[in-house]
Amino acid sequence: MDSPVWFITGASSGFGLAIAKEALSRGHRVIATARNPSKLSDLASAGADLLPLDVTADEAIVTETVNKAFALHGKVTHVINSAGYILDGTIEEANAQEVFDSYNTNVFGALKVCRAVAPHLRAQRFGVVVNIGSVGSWAGGAAVALYCSTKAAVSIFTEGFADEMKPFGVDVCALEPGYFRTRFLNAGARTKTQLSIDAYNEGPAGDYKKLLEVANNNQPGDPLKGARVVVDVMTKSGSAEGRDIPVRLLLGTDCLAGVRQKCKDTLALLDEWEPVSASTDF
């Protein structure tokens, strides 16, 4: 069987890096991308091909990079949209440019890549696209509501994209990890709003910001184990042998607990308000 070929955005850190390393360890080919390819030297030493890619660039540039990736080995079997960052700040504190920048990377960047790979995947009639969402896809939280909204958007458009690509033999999955011990929450990786309003220091927003500081480097999830599961699931091997690729893949016990609670809360809300909600039909 031909070796899988992975195309990974945001491969310099986080899940993008972990998945790239895991795929390489299995003898797969990896095309790793990042805004600054010099940060990918370890992957290059392990055998990865490198391409520069800023997903916020003009769509023509993103498409050109994707075309180069498919030409390198004649195909790409797995696309991982991993580029993204967390915007730390309340709705009031975030200015319009900060909100746009967050969406431009986390949502519009992923959409550009999806649009660019779609014709290739349709033509070869096989492949897997993984868009990295978050446990935050399921619930907005004070101080991270904007980040959560970007990840919710990613998961929802992924569901639709999965339906669109299914007739062509292409699987599409939203990967929704809980808290994993990557550099994602580190000071250099987390983007804080320029404006800070003292009134939010007390209450839910302040509490959550403090929680992020405590959680940093103490997250329960092991990114190496997470990457192993991702590669298993997306290649239908190992722990996922004989199983279909789900449209959403949750990772981590904290994610499972959080989503279960969200589902319970949502069902309770439906039951509580059903008489009112159901009173509007003709």
TrEMBL record:
Record keywords, A-Z: NADP, Oxidoreductase
PROSITE patterns registered for this protein in UniProt: ADH_SHORT
MF terms (GO), sorted A to Z: oxidoreductase activity
Cited InterPro entries: NAD(P)-bd_dom_sf (IPR036291), Sc_DH/Rdtase_CS (IPR020904), SDR_fam (IPR002347), SDR_oxidoreductase (IPR051911)
Pfam families: adh_short
Protein family (similarity comment): Belongs to the short-chain dehydrogenases/reductases (SDR) family.
Protein name (record): Short-chain dehydrogenase/reductase SDR, NAD(P)-binding domain superfamily
